[in-house]
Design a protein that fits this description.
Blueprint (H helix, E strand, L loop, with lengths): L17 H11 L4 E4 L7 H11 L5 E5 L4 H9 L4 E4 L4 H19 L29 H13 L6 E4 L6 H10 L8 E5 L5 H9 L16 H4 L4 E5 L6 H13 L1 E2 L8 E2 L3 E6 L3 H6 L5 H7 L3 E3 L9 H17 L5 E2 L1 H9 L5 H15 L4 E2 L22 H14 L5 H20 L4 H8 L3 H11 L10
Parallel strand pairs: 1-2, 2-3, 4-9, 4-10, 5-6, 6-9, 11-12
Antiparallel strand pairs: 7-8
Helix pairs in contact: 1-2, 4-18, 9-11, 12-14, 16-17, 16-18
Length: 466
């Protein structure tokens, strides 16, 4: 297994029996557990329940060389994160492990609020710079108040805000301050999964429900019973999925795909979207009755450009935090560099700010951040001759106009895919195919990056599809 999980990306502890494994679990608090079903003295299915009693937030992946339908059902019904049969290739297990680690991180890594008493004794960066809910402007102070008001109330919460404003971190802060903080937390990006797969992911399916359904699958509403489910980009759900979501929120029950038996569930739902749901309801693309079910309490996140003096404070914080993470020297930001940060419009919000800071630190060759270390073109609008540059934005506008002239549809996904194919290929090439290094430069988690590489057909070493 250590060959599948190479250092330094992964730190692997091994045990040849359940007792030793539980001792290692207690000592090291791992991000995920891989558990064989066939073991001496005790079966993996029995051990699964014991690991979940130790900490139900840690994903457990069961593996066996003698898989049966009953075994798979028992594993998933018992709360396993996933079930895989041996032998398997590294390409099969790595995305699964990365997904489990990301799920564990979201459930256990503190989403630190100002003055909430969650300790971080080693300073910024140790809890993860992306895990901090930062801000001093009035709009963010109201966000903090709202989290405090609703976290312990067992109601659905709708988090609104532009892409990159920190909706996921707010959702995790609500979960970690809730009465369900010691139970399961799972997150699903509704926009990233096709409708037929999303239905199975949420509700599960019965064996034979569709082509390829060779065994029963337990969905997230069943796995998260008693816990919290974060549905990101819920505004992109199709009308059919909205109808199914409405039923489970109203009736607290659902049916697996291809099943007829109602299954009760007790899940707290936190949903988020960057869409204008008022406009979506007006044009009929989002159900008003689902909106009112989700909108028992709303938290609206401001765009970074509207947060005034938060930008210098956050820039300083992220430089300190990421410098520690990346092992880079850092002392201060030169005034002219900070001017670039404060004058930028930040269309990508906090996520863009984090990405720029990481790129700058990776390029920096000294402890003082001068403009020469900034990403190429950041904050610049004119060429040396004084004439306006033909920017990437101009090229993109031309491409969009061409697509509009051709009568193309689904433009948002098409443009994003075209840009990502080029971006991912270049970053992977620069990183020499190192997924961890590329994920840092892109500001993406490893599971998200692997998923986009596969989805877009980009070679893992950086070659774009022909």
């Amino acid at each position: 297994m250590k060959l599948c999980l190479p250092e330094p990306d992964y730190c692997v502890y091994t045990a040849d029996n359940v007792a030793t494994g539980q001792a290692l679990f207690t000592k090291h608090s791992p991000d995920a557990v891989l558990l064989d079903i066939q073991m001496p003295q005790q079966s993996g299915l029995a051990a699964l329940h014991e690991f979940r009693e130790l900490d139900p937030r840690v994903p457990v992946i069961l593996m066996t060389g003698h898989g049966t339908a009953e075994t798979a059902i028992g594993a998933m019904s018992g709360g396993a994160f996933e079930y895989i049969t041996k032998p398997f290739e590294p390409d099969e297990i790595l995305p699964l492990i990365d997904s489990a680690i990301e799920t564990s991180r979201m459930a256990r890594m503190p989403a630190v609020l100002p003055g909430d008493g969650i300790s971080n004794p080693n300073g910024p960066g140790d809890a993860g710079a992306g895990e901090q809910v930062l801000g001093q402007c009035p709009a963010m102070v109201e966000v903090f108040r709202s989290i405090g008001r609703v976290a312990s109330r067992d109601v659905a919460v709708l988090v609104l805000g532009d892409t990159g404003t920190g909706k996921e971190v707010v959702a995790r802060a609500i979960y970690q301050h809730s009465l369900r903080h010691d139970q399961v937390f799972h997150a699903i990006n509704c926009a990233a999964i096709p409708e037929n797969l999303l239905e199975s992911e949420l509700f599960g399916h019965e064996k034979g429900a569709f082509t390829g359904a060779d065994q029963r699958r337990i969905g997230k509403f069943e796995i998260c019973n008693g816990g919290t489910l974060f549905l990101d980009e819920i505004g992109d759900m199709t009308p059919l999925m909205q109808t199914k979501m409405l039923r489970v929120l109203q009736e607290k029950e659902f049916e697996r795909v291809g099943g007829s038996k109602p299954i009760k569930t007790n899940v707290r739902v936190i949903a988020a979207t960057n869409r204008d749901l008022d406009a979506a309801m007006a044009d009929g693309s989002f159900r008003s009755d689902l909106y009112y079910r989700l909108n028992e309490f709303t938290i609206s996140l401001p765009a970074l450009r509207d947060r005034g003096d938060d930008v210098p404070m956050m820039t300083e914080f992220f430089f300190k935090a990421f410098a520690k993470q990346l092992g880079k020297d850092y002392v201060s930001i030169a005034p002219e560099t900070m001017q670039r940060f404060t004058s930028h419009s930040w269309p990508g919000n906090v996520r863009e700010l984090q990405g720029v800071v990481k790129q700058t630190l990776l390029k920096a060759s000294g402890p003082v951040i001068v403009p020469a270390f900034l990403p190429m073109g950041f904050g610049e609008t004119k060429s040396i001759s004084g004439h306006p540059q033909r920017s990437w934005a101009s090229d993109l506008e031309t491409e969009i106009q061409s697509l509009l002239s051709d009568g193309a549809h689904n433009l948002s996904a098409e443009i994003h895919d075209r840009v990502d194919r080029i971006l991912l290929a270049q970053v992977l090439a620069t990183s020499e195919g190192n997924i961890s290094a590329a994920s840092i430069r892109l500001g993406l988690s490893r599971p998200t990056l692997r998923s986009r590489i596969k989805q877009l057909g980009v070679d893992a070493k950086g070659s774009p599809p022909q």
